[in-house]
Amino acid sequence: MHKFEQGFDDHRMCFRTMVNQEITITLIDEESSIDTTANCRDISETGLALEIGHPVDIGTIIKIHLDNDDQMSVPLTDCRAKVVRCEQENNDLFVLAAQIIDTE
After folding, report:
1. If you count Cβ atoms within 10 Å of the first and of the last residue's Cβ in the chain, which end, N or C, has fewer?
2. d(CA 47, CA 45)
3. Kind of pairing, strands 47-52 and 93-102?
4. Among 95, 98, 94, 62, which Cα is nearest to 83's?
């Protein structure tokens, strides 16, 4: 049997919707909550990729404030997600992979 290779390291097996939309997120840690903006790169039923200007620790809980949008396959309003990966793309751009843990 032939094993399918995607050609990249991808842990989400759900269909992704490519998005280019600025959103507001709240970074939640034990000491504080910080509101910031990020660009939503893509979204699926189980997670999303966010572009942000600074690194975020793996395991950080984020609250995503995203109005329903016609281009989104998964409408999210105030959902929570956990950062599972943070990769630096260039000097001032980091890509966060976040797993959705609940929706409101």
Report:
1. N
2. 6
3. antiparallel
4. 98
Two structure tokens written together for 87 = 């990769």
Amino acid at 50: L
Tokens matching residue 12: 């989400």
* pLDDT tens readout for residues 68-89: 555 555 555 678 999 999 999 9
Contact present, 33 and 65 (Cβ < 8 Å)? no
pTM of the model as a whole: 0.75
Q: Provide the phi-psi class of 59: left if phi over 0, else alpha when psi is between -120 and 50, else beta.
A: left
Contact 48, 100 (CB under 8 A): yes
User: Alpha-carbon distance 29 to 85, whole Å?
Assistant: 16
Distance from C-alpha of 40 to C-alpha of 57, rounded to nearest angstrom? 18
What are 88's two structure tokens?
Answer: 């630096």
Instruction: Report residue 95 as tokens.
Output: 């890509």
